Amino acid sequence: MQFFSLLQALLIAGALSGLIGLLAEAQDCGCSSDLCCSQWGYCGSGNDFCGKGCKQGPCFGNNDGGDRVQDYGDGGGDDGEGGGDGGDGGGDGGGDGSGDGGGDGSGDGGGDGGDDGDGGEGGGDGGDGSGDGGGDGGDDGDGGDGGGDGSGDGGDGGDDGDGGDGNGDGNGDGGDDGDGGDGSGDGGDGGDGGGDGGDGGGDGGVGGGHGGGGGGHGGGGGGTVGDIVTPAFFDGIASKAGVGCAGKGFYTRNAFLSAAGSFPDFGTTGNNDVKKREIAAFFAQVTHETGHFCYIEEIAKRKYCQASHKYPCNPDKNYFGRGPLQLTWNYNYIPASQAIGFDGLNSPETVANDNVISFKAALWFWDVNGVHNAITSGQGFGATTRIINSHECDGKHPNQMNARVGYYKDYCKQLGVSPGDYLTCYLGR
Q1: What is the 3-state secondary structure (H, E, C) of 20-66?
Q2: Among residues 419, 394, 332, which one has the least CA distance to residue 367?
Q3: How confident is the model over 131-152, as pLDDT tens digits?
Q4: What pLDDT digit, counting tens, does each position of 253-288 carry?
Q5: pLDDT given for residue 204 in this prediction
Q6: Backbone phi, psi, residue 333, to 5°
Q7: What class of enzyme is it (predicted)?
Q8: Across residues 354-381, what is the average pLDDT?
Q9: Would you list the DSSP string of 188-210?
Q10: Which of 22, 80, 129, 359 sits between 20 and 30 A of 399, alpha carbons compared?
Q11: Residue 4: in which H helix or E strand, if any?
Q12: What is the pLDDT of residue 427?
């Protein structure tokens, strides 16, 4: 009996020792990011783990304050004395137990949203605690708005979130694809991935998408083709055409933008630098081909008919160069007309008479002959020259080739982008 009593005592002691070890281990938590560490130090999900007393992870519900990361600050104090700083939201955004919204704080703004949550809204009017606005949004969340009168900056948007609006010095910055919010002061910055810069009372936000319009300097940025090809940019080219030029007044920005709308990949592929380089390349080639939009038709008006069963010629028509890229040859006019809607066989002159068709013909050539792919895939400006006029790449026409490069570098500078590599087309480049 004594032997069994001793054995039982040893077993019980071992079990207690193991339990104590487990408890000690549990107190350290170390939970995976999708689990909560409960107030007792265990990993799990649901109210028992993520509710009251939750220490870390996607906590929610009635957190009991303290310095825990997930806790939200309570409301503001009296007479504009702000409350504490908002804490961070949970996995799906934690408010005061809510799903997506961050809790409201009247101190330095609402808490930060979680992975999919929105940052909380900033608190009351103009008190000491309403300095900074809403919290930062999570990966897909929106930054919270700044508080009432006199509040400061809105929170920053997450990777895909929008920056919150602020009433002080502007708003938060948009995330990678988010929009900068609007501020009463300086506009927030747009996100890297194409968000819009916020509008501000001061300087406009510099956006990855549309530049924010400010009370001071307008923000620059990428975005749509129309945002990049501003009236000042287009007119800066066209204004250099002489008074007697046939293209004076024919080539317009509105006609270009109308035509570009039929080619959705043009000027919209890749990041903002790629978009701007393609547009700079297009206008550099057009500038060289037309003499700053001076010429509509080629000076030497030859027949340019190549016998073809697929693309026959009308003996009464000539297929010489017309339009921004001087569309030439029957085998270009006819498929272009089929794609963009005119009679290229019998009325090739339409390219010289209709300014929208004229730009469409140039953009059609740019697309189907691989110029778009060349400039957007990193092959460089030299590759576009090789496609458009390859004889300049033989080393015997350096002035013409370098003139194209000069226009391209100038337009890149105007658009705020580096010209990249491979600018010439000698020896395969």
Answers
A1: HHHHHHHHCCCCCCCCEECCCCCEECCHHHHCCCCCECCCCCCCCCC
A2: 332
A3: 344 444 444 444 444 443 333 3
A4: 999 999 999 999 999 999 999 999 999 999 999 999
A5: 37
A6: -60, -45
A7: hydrolase
A8: 97
A9: PPPPTTSPPPPPBSSSPP-BSSS
A10: 359
A11: helix 2-27
A12: 56
Q: Is the model's pLDDT at 67 over the cut of 50?
A: no
* DSSP 8-state class, residue 369: T
Tokens of 259: 């035509």
Q: Answer yes or no: are the C-beta atoms of 75 and 106 closer than 8 Å.
A: yes
pLDDT band at 34 (very low <50, low <70, confident <90, very high): low
Q: How far is Cα 352 from Cα 357, in angstroms, rounded to an integer?
A: 8
The DSSP call for residue 221 is B
Tell me if 70 sits within 8 A of 53, measured CB to CB. Answer: no
Could you tell me which of 177, 179, 153 has the C-alpha nearest to residue 165? 153
Two tokens, residue 152: 């400061």
pLDDT, residue 56, reads: 76
- The catalytically annotated residue of 289, 297, 298, 392 is 289
Which tokens belong to 94? 């934690």
Q: How confident is the model at residue 369 (pLDDT cuts 50, 70, 90)?
A: very high
The SS3 call for residue 160 is coil
Q: What is the CA radius of gyration of the chain?
A: 32
pLDDT in tens, 383-424: 999 999 999 998 888 999 999 999 999 999 999 999 999 999
Tell me the sheet residues that pair with 44. 36
**Alpha carbon distance 115, 176 (integer Å):** 14
Q: What percent of the chain is helix, strand and coil (3-state, nearest 5)?
A: 35, 5, 60
Find the DSSP H helices in 36-175. 47-50
Is 278 assigned a catalytic role? no
How many helices (DSSP H) and strands (DSSP E) are in the chain?
12, 2
